[in-house]
Amino acid sequence: MGNSCTAQAPPITEEVVVMREIATSESELSHKKATLDNVMADSAVVEFQPAVHMLVCALDYKKTACPLTCTMDGNNMLDLARHCNAKTTKALYDEEATRPNVVKSIKEVGSKCKPGDYFIFFYAGHGSSLKDNDGDEEDGIDECFCLVDKHGQTSKKDWLRDDDFAKAVSSSVSRGTNIVVISDCCHSGTVADLGRPEWRGHRAISISGCTDKQTSGDTGSGGIFTHALLLAIQKLNKKGLRKYSLQDLYVTTLAKDDKIFRSPQDITLHTVPGFSSDGMEWPLVPPESYKAPYRTTLQQFADALHMPVLLGSKDNGTAAAPEVVQQKSCFVCAHLLRGRPDPSLKN
After folding, report:
1. Contact 198/166 with Cβ under 8 angstroms?
2. Cα radius of gyration (the chain)
């Protein structure tokens, strides 16, 4: 009979066992690492992105003796929101901006907000003052938004007091939402009344075109404050900043106002007590290609006249602002200060 040769496996030594265990451990570790990487990648994809819900109120008062160009501000802010993919945008223009409609819309848009989201209220129009009716103001004066009736006329009964505005927003927006109030109007410094008890527990910041005692300028193509704000956003974009705080935006807006418009109004920022403006990111950061409408308008104006655009000065503030920028008087304020009734301002 022939001999059959059967290959025998080498004996399994302790060293072989250890090597196998090491290989198995490395394989398991590699698998766990891959799994962890996938989980982290998935987490990055589903990372919470706050939604922006914005209400715009802009009035030109075309049917009164005190017209403005504030719907241009409203259009410019809506354009910014579209560039930034805001989830909700609603606009009330002129006769749409009645007191009942504004309060109703605050509730409608504000109720969409979840903790971490943003509620932005933007107002451009006339602002004024009324005698305090509940004793909460040290100076005895309530600030207010000068809204209109369904016929486009404005009267004190149509105006929205700071007290009522604070109650409407604070009761409509859930705590944990980031609330930003932007007011381009006269006497607007504390028009959000962020010191009222209704604001406790809320995260809220207000940026206004001027102090309670001042008027805000209209350039003839929108408000000075709104244009300065949008120019500031473009400036921060050019620096390559994709995240910055409300405080950063505010400081840059001041710089743009000083450089380009040199307006007498003092753009102001207020927060709820105990909250820092550095603690809230500005949510509307557009693509780097974004151009502020004021710069674009000036360029078109200059192209038509074959002139260079001079946006502010580069000589330490000795040059004048462009002549196309002219500050309109606020006729509502002028009549109130003089004690004369405006024919279009019904009592």
Report:
1. yes
2. 29
Residue matched to tokens 């505005």: 165
Q: DSSP letter at 323?
A: T
Say if CB 283 and CB 292 are below 8 A apart.
Answer: no
Which residues are CB-neighbours of 202 under 8 A, at least 6 positions away? 170, 173, 175, 177, 179, 272
β-strand pairing of 118-124 with 178-184: parallel
For residues 262 and 45, give the distance between their C-alpha atoms in angstroms, rounded to a whole number: 45
Task: Count the Cβ atoms, other than its own, within 10 Å of residue 78.
Answer: 18
- Regions of the chain where pLDDT drops below 70: 1-48, 135, 137, 295-347
CA dihedral 8, 13, 18, 21 (to 10 degrees): 30
Using CA atoms in the order 183, 248, 76, 102, what is the torsion angle rounded to 10 degrees? -30
Extract the tokens encoding 63. 């049917």
Residues 35 and 252: their CA atoms lie apart, in Å, by 45
Domain boundaries of the chain, sorted by first residue: 52-292+328-346
| 65-103: pLDDT as tens digits | 889 999 999 999 999 999 999 999 999 999 999 999 999
- The DSSP secondary-structure symbol of 107 reads H
Under 8 Å between Cβ of 116 and 131:
no
Q: Which tokens belong to 212?
A: 């309670």
CATH 3.40.50.1460 fits 52-292+328-346, yes or no: yes
Contact 145, 125 (CB under 8 A): yes
Is beta strand 160-161 parallel, antiparallel or unpaired with respect to 141-145?
Answer: antiparallel
The 10s digit of each residue's pLDDT in 126-144 is 999 998 877 676 777 899 9
Task: Tell me which residue of 218, 294, 250 sits closest to 61, measured CA to CA.
Answer: 218
Task: Supply 245's token pair.
Answer: 């705080």
Tell me the three state secondary structure of residue 161: strand
